Amino acid sequence: MQKKLIGIAEQGLFASAVFISFLLVFESKIAIPVWLQPIGRMHPLILHFPIVILLLAVVMEVFRFNKANSMAQSEGRTPESPAVTASLPEFYRTFLTNLLLVGALLAAITVIMGLFLSKEDGYTGSVVQWHKWTGIGVFYVATLIYWSRKKSWYSPAIAQLGAAFMGLMLIVAGHYGSAITHGSDFILGPIAKNKTTEPVDLQQALVFNDVIRPIFEQKCTSCHNPDKLKGELALTDVESIRQGGKTGKLFIAGQPEISLLVKRIHLPVEDKKHMPPLGKAQLTEDEAKLLSLWVKGRAEFNRKVIELPVTDSLRIMAVAMFKPAEQVEPEYAFDAADEETVKKLNTDYRTIAPLAKESPALAVNLYNKAMYSPEQLKELSPIKGQIVSLNLNKLPVKDADLRYVGQLENLQKLDINFTDITGKGLSELTPLKQLQSLALSGTKTTYADLRSQIGGFKNLKTLALWETELTDNEIQQLKKANPNIQFLAGFDGDKSEPIRLNIPQVKNSSTIFNQSIIPQIKHPIKGVEIRYTTDGTEPDSLKSPVFGDKIVLTENTRIKAKAYKSGWLSSPVATFSFYKSTHKPDSVNLLMPLNQVHQADGANTFFDHKLGTFSPNSPAWANNWAGVRKNDMVLVSEFKKPVSVTSVAVRTMIEPETGIFPPEAIEIWGGNSRDQMKLIGTTKPSLPTKKSDPTLTEIECKFKPQTVSFLKIVAKPVVRLPEWHSNKGNRALLLVDEVFIN
């Protein structure tokens, strides 16, 4: 380098040392603006350069002290004196000096980027702190070596000690950096996985410890552990999982559709909120389903797998993961079918596959209702001895078609759910001596059919009768007469405990209406009775009215509904809000900006009849939530023809743990011109407490009737979060998705 350039670089090195010290001293008071965050995120890109350069430089620095140079120093000459340096090639000396200077400067840039990056959410924990301070140490040691190497006291021993210390610091900093990105067990993970472990016995397996926890450990805990608390969330122990993280509780027991855990794993992979993040090992389809089912089943931590109902989807999937203490592989007396024959019988609407690897047993599935014909069953004759499983679910199978099924001599499992059979043709199946599982749900099978023919199924173990014409009493009679058969008809086959109904569903295309609306609340299971309330109380099965199709709503109404059916546990309570919105302005505009993250569709957001839900940061819902934090939300609406108004309601999200609060106050201004509006109404809603649950609610401001051509709606965010909040003293985020003018 030219002397002038070297001088500038040395000044930059000194300035970097001062700036880094400043960042460290005032770290707790510094907030990194959004435009600087991309610089911080370049930290992983740059950090490899100073590592290589500094390692090379310190090794060369040690070799600068060869035997001749050491002797010269013992005679009182410094390593950089003319007599000593003359023995070194000029290129070596110049290259080494410049290399140290460049390495130290790059280390400074890397440290500054890392400090910027550490201010973003999720960079907490001991691993991050170790990486941070060892990285800072690398910079200061490199700077110290550069400035000390020309001093008279700088000896070969000091150079060797500095090189060793620098190498150690680089290795430690790199190790902790890799632990942040890949997890602390990344290096030894393959060895650990290959260690022999005792298989879990199904009889002792716990749903959480043996099914759910392994998913967290493999896919989540590298970022969510006490050493690296991404989002202030740890998934390493039960208490931390229950507590949740910075964005709130991880799950709402029994409600996967609004649980943060389930919503994050189902976001598009490219979404920055998707978990695990892009670049990490992703959840398999089965793993994602297991997590959803666990939350749906109330996210219990101490329940055994075998304590779940035998028809429970989580149990069915979990059972497949465990081997009994002494598992006996099924043996079949028949030979495998001809491969060419199987290949020929496979079509777009019929799949035939081995039941297991190297097994002669075959599983057959038929698809496409429009393409079905009995001929598809008849064509299976060449492999009738190898078929052990046949799925005809939801196909137009008739009683007469069962004569082809009855020829499958080794059939063990038959699914004819929701087919057109009446039960009269069940006699065609009695030759199936190996049949163990028969599914007749959704068919017109009658009690008389089963009572007369069930005795012919000598090895039958399970019989599914969901949604048939059989009454509970008739099923009980069949159970009593056939104790060896498990009947699946809304009951737990182990304990005879009813299964819980899922919640009712609203079928209206929108719950926002102009003058009136007939709410359409349905349930997917036939024969379910829905009871409801509109006064905020929970519906019961005796006093609450039965929901019907003639209910008309003319005002804002919140309906709570539960589903009931004999032989089942009632569903959880479902809450549906219906909103009246009489007036839609002809034009609308915002006087103050929305925050950068929650732009939604600008001013049009508030009257598009699209309601938001939780996860406001997800692009799937981004168009539904408009937000402000640093300023008021000020909306001006214009009506070409004057309208009479008596209230304005603002629908907002409240999620206290994440700092999303209702407005501190709402002001309504009105008038006949944009420049001459007067205050016609105000309201100050009560603020949530520390234990308040997340909710979506409308805040209404009522006033005396006013005829206006212009309305200005001012919603003021909370200026200072309360003392109990983790971000106390800061401004709250205000989110609004819809405004109702009546």
Automatic annotation (TrEMBL):
Keyword check for Transmembrane: yes
Protein name: Uncharacterized membrane protein
UniProt keyword annotation of Transmembrane present: yes
Any one GO MF annotation of this record: electron transfer activity
Matching Gene3D superfamilies: Ribonuclease Inhibitor
Residue ranges of domain Cytochrome C Planctomycete-type in the record: 220-278
Keywords associated with the record: Membrane, Transmembrane, Transmembrane helix
Transmembrane segments: 12-36, 42-63, 95-118, 130-147, 159-177
